[in-house]
Write a structure and sequence with these properties.
It comes from Ottowia thiooxydans. The protein is of the alpha/beta class. The chain has 10 helices and 10 strands. It has a 6-stranded mixed sheet, with helices on both faces. A 4-stranded antiparallel sheet has the order 2-1-4-5, covered by helices on one side. Bound molecules: adenosine-5'-triphosphate.
Length: 254
């Protein structure tokens, strides 16, 4: 498997807070990696460090063999590291089509406005927003804005797509639709990193899962194994409830 991203002992401090501590991780082409962990574990910070939003306080970020630790966000984006944000942020007055077209124009030099709009149409069809392409982005529902975020990220022709809680705030049917889109992208061979709190999404869509707790990587493996790992259960539930959950599971088996 081709390695596309390697984190080597990546750390990040915010004043006295150690948000990431010696995180080492390798990502291979075509993987759908779930990045999970309790609130405040450092998941978004890790994506921010990879995509140049925050500078690592220590360690290195290697992308396709190149050291990108000090890259700015626009440089990372143009290299093919595209992301969606937890808080969706379209250009509210621009219509849906031009929101996506601007992402294409930003990331690819030499593209004409007409060419960017044409590409944008394709991405909007893919995410199911083809029929609302002329509406102002501000008029979209949350679920639609999340799809718009995805279309914008795809317009940047990503080599790695980072999805930061794309399902937060969505209902069950909307989550199912989002999962279908992620699976389709994975089938096309796109490398994806998914920050997700919904375990069903993690287990059903990810090929591998890593777990952060207090800025440290505490597990790395197949989704079914990782979500049953006692360390991971304890990270989510706390020691007392993890023991209760274990006793409950043992009782169920008898
Ligand atoms: N810009 C910042 N300045 C100061 N502290 C920050 C900053 N960004 C994140 N933090 C802190 O770093 C820690 C990790 O935050 P982060 O947002 O990465 O966690 P997370 O795992 O993504 O959490 P959640 O699941 O709640 O989104 C938290 O304690 C957070 O308060």
């Amino acid at each position: 498997m081709t390695e596309v991203l390697a984190l080597e002992s990546v750390s990040r401090r915010f004043g006295g807070l150690q948000a990431l501590q010696d995180v080492s991780l390798r990502l291979h082409k075509g993987e759908v990696l779930g990045l999970i962990g309790p609130n405040g574990a450092g998941k978004t910070t890790l994506i921010n460090v990879i995509t140049g939003v925050h500078r690592a306080s220590g360690g290195r970020v290697m992308f396709q063999g190149e050291d990108i630790t000090s890259r700015k966000p626009y440089q990372a984006a143009r290299m093919g590291l595209a992301r969606t944000f937890q808080i969706v942020q379209p250009f509210p007055e621009l219509n849906v089509l031009d929101n996506v077209a601007s992402a294409a124009l930003f990331s690819q030099s030499g593209l004409t406005v007409a060419g960017a709009r044409k590409a944008a149409e394709g991405h909007l069809e893919f995410v199911g927003l083809g029929s609302v392409s002329d509406r102002p982005a501000a008029s979209l529902t949350l679920a639609m804005r999340k799809r718009l975020e995805l279309a914008k990220a795809l317009a940047m022709k990503p080599k790695i797509l980072f999805l930061d809680e794309v399902n937060a705030g969505l209902n069950t049917a909307e989550v199912e639709q989002a999962m279908t889109l992620i699976r389709t992208l994975a089938e096309r061979g796109l490398t994806i990193v998914v920050i997700e709190h919904l375990m069903k999404v993690v287990v059903d869509t990810c090929s591998r899962v890593v777990v952060l707790q207090n800025g440290r990587l505490i597990a790395d493996g197949l989704p079914h194994d990782v979500v049953r790992d006692p360390l991971v259960v304890e990270a989510y539930l706390g020691q007392k409830y993890a023991k209760l959950a274990q006793q409950f599971a043992q009782g169920e088996q008898r």
